[in-house]
Amino acid sequence: MFGASIGRGGQAIIDAMVRWLARGHISPNILTFIGVAINVGSGMLFGFGMFFWAGIVLIVANLFDMLDGQVARLSGRVTSYGGFLDSSLDRLSDMVVFVGLMVFYARDTEFHSTLNVFLAGAGMMGSVMVSYASARAESMIPKCDVGFLRRPERVVLFIIGALSTVPGSHNFFANRMPAVLWVLAVGSYWTFAHRMYHTWREVNKSEAREAMAEAAAVQAGQAPELRHEPTLAHKAS
How do the pLDDT tens digits run along the chain, 237 residues long? Predict the structure, then answer.
């Protein structure tokens, strides 16, 4: 109940912001670019090891990511190019965070970890493959958004890893970024494989339906036409 109240309050704030931005004739594409710029700032903070503030900035960046689409719908400015721009820049926003983490763990400090650099790189590659598989599949099937590790889940994991970072703390719940990188690296490829399988299954279903429809059409074309004999009119005797 308390959580639902927080959710309603947060949604009310977002709705008010969307209405204000729509009335101000703010271009949704401008909001998209602002979100990307803030994400770049978050990636830089990760690179410098300022994880907590990187997490805060990441929350703000993804607020803009939520606003642009809603403003576009409310102001009637939904365009195909706007969707393409938003999707393309989302990939950049993902990668700058991964690159920031790779830079941090590659630096010659006490936190240097070749394993974490590898996990961040693997996670970045996996996230790109997940997005590419979806985009390519949707040229053949209506929708391909299956899998448990989509972009919103990746962002939430980054935020959890960032905000839990407390240097020197030995608390079990502190410094969870290495665990987050494991989840991102493994989960991204699992999601990629799931989308590959889902696309294969849906394409096979579609091809089977088309084959059945063609067979039915051929069968209907070869069926003999029924001839109707003319009815003879008899005079009344």
Answer: 443 454 465 567 667 777 777 777 778 888 889 999 999 999 999 999 999 999 999 999 988 887 877 888 877 778 888 888 888 888 899 899 999 999 999 999 999 999 999 999 999 999 999 999 998 998 899 899 898 898 889 999 999 999 999 888 888 888 899 999 999 999 999 999 999 999 999 999 988 888 888 888 888 876 555 455 555 444 443
Q: Are 18 and 67 in contact (CB under 8 A)?
A: yes
Residue 93: CB partners within 8 Å, gap ≥ 6? 35, 36, 39, 40, 61, 65
Q: Assign domain 9-213 to its CATH architecture.
A: Up-down Bundle (1.20)
What's the rounded Cα separation, in Å, for the pair 77 and 83? Answer: 11
Count CB neighbours of 45 within 10 A: 22
Asked whether the beta carbons of 75 and 20 are under 8 A apart, the reply is no
Who contacts 68 (Cβ-Cβ below 8 Å, separation ≥6)? 28, 29, 31, 32, 35, 82, 86
Q: Confirm if 143 and 202 have CB atoms less than 8 A apart.
A: no
